[in-house]
Amino acid sequence: MLESLGITPQELFGQVLVGLINGSFYAILSLGLAIIFGLLNVINFAHGALYMLGAFVAWMLLQWMGVGYWWALVLSPLAVGLLGALLERTLLRRLYQVDHLYGLLLTLGVALILEGAFRYKFGSSGNPYPVPELLRGGQDLGFMYLPNYRAWVVVASLTLCAGTWLAIERTRMGAYLRAATENPTLVENFGINVPVMITSTFALGVALAGLAGVLAAPIYQVNATMGSNLIITVFAVVVIGGMGSILGSVVTGLGLGLLEGVTKVFYPEASNIVIFIVMAVVLLIKPAGLFGQER
């Protein structure tokens, strides 16, 4: 059947793999956005710039200090998370009681500043980041060739998303986080420092973006616009899954990545807009998103 359409199994499975990889990044980034919006009601438009920053921190660690990929997986999200904590404590904290639009405009400004600073310092051309030696090469599956690093990205992303969801939905600390967004005074009466918890939540959300940047560095060129090229699609994923829905962001991110990959095989012209078509249809049928709840 595929041959009658002029499509080989290798082409199909190759694009499915590409879609799964893209979906993995959509899932991680939308997961961070969902955590921040669902628990803090902040629309963080700087998420793409922080994803870019995570990739650049990994690149700078390697180029300037000789620190390799595996340490960058720890140090880069930590650096991005600390920056996020600083932003929350100095800027965002002042906007929690006002309209969401103010937080969106503030984080958009932060994104433009970060992107402009890195474009000025490093230019717009991409900087290559090598695949770690342990993950070089690939596996011949017969119907396709599977690069080891891309398989690692998918497995790492799924593990990270599942672990984060379990931590927030199935642990006592996650229950405290959810309760603090609804009734902070009650939670404080249990001896919980709510401001520190809120700062930690925002730091966790942006650290996930930084980690995604490290995972993306060996696949994509590290450049100042890599976040802005992705963030609009990620916001569409979050809207489709349901603003603030952690499970919805993960499932929708992976599913839409696969849909995008398959569309490139059967109708390449629509691959860049298929996610936005799905978003329009979902908003018409269920404005709260597939996994969201009406507020």
Task: Describe, in plain words, how this protein is organized in 3D.
This protein has 295 residues and is an all-alpha fold. It has a single domain, classed as ABC transporter involved in vitamin B12 uptake, BtuC (Orthogonal Bundle), CATH 1.10.3470. The chain has helices at residues 9-40, 47-65, 69-90, 100-122, 148-169, 172-182, 184-188, 194-216, 228-241, 246-266, 274-285; strands at 138-140, 145-147. Strands 1-2 form a two-stranded antiparallel sheet. Strand 1 (138-140) and strand 2 form a beta hairpin. Helix 1 (9-40) packs parallel to helix 5 (148-169) and helix 1 (9-40) packs across helix 9. The model has no long low-confidence stretch (mean pLDDT 85).
